[in-house]
Design a protein that fits this description.
Arc Repressor Mutant, subunit A; about 15% strand; alpha+beta; 3 helices; about 80 residues
Length: about 80
């Protein structure tokens, strides 16, 4: 069984908690505030790559410039 990617899990968790779309920067701020642990030297770049993977897997969808929400949720404005 494949282990779930911690980045993927965190992105989905924060989008679910927000209840609507978030920008990549907002997702990162929430992850950082929650104490997300990582070994990346470029965490924002890593986050961008993981968000792209989730969009390709159709777990999340792009709803605006650098703005994403969980697939199948109603589109609303990005949450602060």
């Amino acid at each position: 069984m494949k282990k779930q990617n911690a980045w993927h899990a965190a992105v989905v968790e924060h989008l679910r908690a927000a209840g609507g779309p978030l920008t990549i920067e907002q997702i990162w701020q929430r992850m950082e505030a929650a104490g997300f642990k990582h070994a990346s030297k470029l965490p924002r770049s890593t986050l961008g790559a993981r968000v792209t993977e989730l969009a390709q897997m159709k777990t999340i969808e792009r709803v605006g410039p650098a703005t994403y929400q969980l697939t199948g949720t109603q589109h609303a404005e990005a949450q602060p």
